[in-house]
Specification:
The chain is an all-alpha fold. Helices cover about 50% and strands about 0% of the residues. It contains six helices and no strands. The protein has helices at about 15-20, 25-30, 50-55, 70-80, 80-95, 100. The termini are far apart.
């Protein structure tokens, strides 16, 4: 019988948090009543996908925005492309370093 691993062998923790929407994002904290506003510094919804595709404060890190029906496929392609994963990692580091600017 296969055993369940308690950690991912392929994805670093930050990438898992970003892909699932968990972690240091206002939208995640709001779900648990830990943060009231759910807007970033540019007054839009603070979900990880928004930071990667539309937030003007992360413009230099943007990826091309997929249509809604292709969002899951887009994410799968993103993690399988080494260049995109590198850009994704840099975006995550930027978000963590500039948490005060990107939060409300």
């Amino acid at each position: 019988m296969p055993k369940v691993a308690l950690f991912s062998r392929q994805w670093p923790r930050n990438e898992i948090l970003f892909a699932t929407g968990h972690g240091p994002f206002p939208s995640y904290f709001k779900r648990f009543g830990l943060a009231v506003p759910n807007n970033c510094g540019c007054d839009d919804e603070c979900i990880p996908f928004y930071y990667a595709t539309a937030c003007p404060l992360t413009l230099s890190f943007h990826f091309k925005t997929p249509s809604t029906i292709h969002k899951v496929h887009w994410l799968r392609n993103l993690v399988s492309n080494p260049h995109a994963r590198r850009r994704w990692k840099i975006l995550m580091e930027f978000i963590q370093k500039n948490e005060q600017v990107l939060s409300c």
